Amino acid sequence: MQPTPTYPIGTPGQPWGAAERDQWRARQVRQRSYADDVLTAIEALRGRFDVEMYGDVIYADTQHPAERFPLRALRSRQWQPGLPSVLVTGGVHGYETSGVHGALRFVDTQAERFAGRANLLVVPCVSPWAYERVQRWNFDAIDPNRSFKEGSPAQESAALMRLVAQHQAQYGPFAAHIDLHETTDTDESEYRPAVAARDGKVFEPGSIADGFYLVDDADNPQPAFQQAIIDAVSRVTHIAPADDKNEIIGTPVVAPGVIYYPMKQWGLCAGISGARYTTTTEVYPDSPRATPEQCIEAQVAAVCAAVEYVCGKASER
What we know:
Layout (H helix, E strand, L loop, with lengths): L17 H9 L7 H11 L5 E12 L2 E12 L9 E6 L6 H13 L9 E5 L4 H6 L21 H17 L4 E7 L3 H13 L14 E5 L5 H11 L13 E2 L2 E5 L2 E4 L15 E7 L8 H25 L1
Parallel strand pairs: 3-4, 3-5, 5-10, 6-9
Antiparallel strand pairs: 1-2, 2-4, 6-10, 7-8, 8-9
Helix pairs in contact: 3-8, 7-8
């Protein structure tokens, strides 16, 4: 049996301090442009949708010049009271590319067909610094998707929570929230060893699910909503099977392609709105059975199915 490799930063068994975070940050290399990929795409949609400017993320330290990232959301132009409202978020983890581009493609190619049926607020890239570095964590080595809590230490998470709270105060509650994610091979090769090192714990190897799956809220399960999304996505890409323990990423499978997490307790993005219908998508771009294009289309299909489901429930009332 091969020994578990040691992460190259920190001392085993000791949580990181400022020096280790600086070392980690120095390893992060800018690989793409948030301005070119995301802000330009949002500006191109301005003629068809409202653009919400909800703040900035600013990072700097003694080793790095200040970087400022404007935060932008897209909103239905004719927001109509009485219609169900749906929140769509992507790029909470910046390395999960299809979430960002799936959200943008949904707005560009599908959102207008829901005009008069649903109100939409779409935040394509919650974590722009991490998007540029193809990284899960933010500048401070914090996972934004464990930081959607009061007094959040993550600028990205705090800004999105303010946007959602202000929006709900002005326009009313959301009926649904779908948060777009990926699970990649680097979760096992980089992120999980890194988080164990950061927290002074022992890395325990796990597995990566091959295919699409959903995370429902353990405290507010909505099986029919999840099933509608699974059915739609299965026409685009394959659904992740359970392993021999009937689990996906170490969590029991409660329905084909569905697991539970306690969203609010864990500070997950999909728990911030208080919507009745919530889910986190997970595609697997490293699968030999899927392409990056399929992963983007799977995210679009998931959002469309979520909005259609909520519209259908509204029409039943």
